[in-house]
Amino acid sequence: MFVKTLADILDTDAHVTGDAFESRRILLASDGLGYSFHDTVIKAGTTQHLHYKNHIEANYCIDGQGEVECVATGQVWPLGPGSMYVLDQHDAHIVRAETDMRLICIFTPALTGQETHDPDGSYAAPE
After folding, report:
1. For the chain, what is the domain count?
2. Which of 7, 13, 80, 104 is least surrounded, with the fewest CB atoms within 10 Å of its CB?
3. What element of type H or E holds 76?
4. Residue span of the signal peptide, if any (predicted)?
5. This prediction's pTM
6. Does an H or E element contain 41, and which?
């Protein structure tokens, strides 16, 4: 057993920020669990085009308002506290945040914590 807190992650290499997001990567590949666990804030007024071709991702919204769009179908779902979206088919998607939106995210395979988005919105395949 081990215990981590958000405070353990802040201001470390596992605390990654970008123009549209802040990702606090709490569990990573180095933890040996086969998945990674993130506390992510999507910044208000931003739009992100993402396509995790090499990962499955589940996202549970715990705060804020926004929407997610499936690129293949154009279908849009509202997001708010208590809603979840799962990219079980490596779905290309667009996330729009009306307010700061806080998501709890799980990736499999696990991220190392040092990934950056490729131009198409994906992360490279794990080695």
Report:
1. 1
2. 7
3. strand 76-79
4. none
5. 0.89
6. strand 36-42
